[in-house]
Design goal:
mainly beta
């Protein structure tokens, strides 16, 4: 028998890859620190943030994710509006390796936004994380409610 369940999943790890610098070297003592996820280039230096969920999603033993909503909260490094582009990705020593479809949402300053990322469910079920891959410069917190996933899924009872 198949049952419908819900769960909220938070990242196991989050950080940002900065070209020429590697992981977790950006704004360590500012905003939310090394756990924030950045995207886009600032001063010509590209950045790509990544949140990984480890076994927190695969351990649900979902046969299908029917709805996935991602919550993001701006860290204030860009006080204007910018568009976060989200894509599933694996963490590698050379930065996030994104694949598959994307989803986007506009964030302003330190506001919180939600985006339906159900189209990315296959990557999440395969154990991939979520990367910010857009060209607009901006950042979100990678801990707390930011980068949390509200999942509705089917599983065997």
């Amino acid at each position: 028998m198949t049952v419908v369940r819900t769960a909220t999943v938070t990242p196991e790890w989050s950080g940002t890859w900065t070209a020429g610098q590697g992981w977790d070297r950006l704004n360590v003592g500012r905003y939310g620190g090394r756990t924030d996820l950045y995207q886009g280039a600032l001063a010509g230096i590209p950045r790509t943030g990544l949140a990984t969920y480890g076994q927190r999603i695969t351990a649900l033993a979902a046969s299908k994710i029917t709805r996935a909503v991602l919550t993001l909260t701006g860290n204030g490094s860009n006080r204007g509006s910018w568009t976060a582009i989200i894509q599933c990705a694996d963490k590698t020593p050379a930065g996030p390796a994104p694949s598959g479809t994307t989803a986007g949402v506009t964030i302003t300053g330190t506001a919180t936004a939600q985006v339906d990322i159900t189209a990315l469910a296959g990557g999440l079920m395969a154990g991939r994380g979520l990367a910010l891959v857009g060209s607009s410069y901006g950042a979100v917190h990678g801990t707390g409610a930011s980068m949390s996933l509200a999942l509705t899924y089917e599983a065997l009872a």
